[in-house]
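ok so I'm stuck.
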Amino acid sequence: MAFDFPSSPTTGQTYSISGGPTYVYNGTAWVVLTPGNQFNRTVFTATAGQTTFTMNYVVGAIDVYRNGVKLVNTSDFTATNGTSIVLLNAATVGDTIEVISYPMITYTDAVKRTGDTMTGALALPSGGLNVGSGQFYVDTTGRVFSPNQTAFSATATGTTQSAGVIAFNNASVNIGSAFNTSTYRFTAPVAGNYYFFVTTIGVSATAQAVSIFKNGSRFTGLGWGGVPSSAESGASIAAVIPLAAGDYVTANCSYSAYNAGYNQFTGFLVG
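replied:
not stuck anymore, here's the structure
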């Protein structure tokens, strides 16, 4: 079904689509007419010099014809009060004045596509509400799901890790591909608050200290875990960090000789 509305319509001008509804231009927008009985046809036989024809109509929703020729609103006639149509050039005796009037749909409980506000509760369909082919989902109990929301979980393979950026080179989860397993950086795709968690395990009696860096500078204080002993010791830290689009985050350790195989870095967009 193709739409090709006139580019410069006049108030009351109609437009029909094959197999579809009829539209009328109300002076601001094209409005669909009531399906079914879409118009009323009234025919007058004019008297000599007659200019006014009386009938009920919706302002902006009529077509007027004189002897089969369509008249132009405001140029050939005026119809502004809903009860009378006035010709600007008087009719001659026997002229046929035909008026097609259209009953317009009145939407009293609808939400505009832009610039509107909905109040009250929204009743969801039995299967919940899907937005954007599953990009956003609300079930009937009110739970919100965003299966494509940015998130990652990465581990570091190998045996040891020197001080500095921890080499998280294996991502088991990387929704949105925002975590880089070559630079070990998470780069925010959009501005928001992000949650991060880092945990490390050391070897032997090595002291443990781990921190989160934002754009190359430490964002949080050091997170300490465990006490150096002859066994392994560990450290972990968690933080919610506000990021602008393009900001990046890394997990850093302050001492060498980490057991890299047990390190983990996780993060996701909170909102």
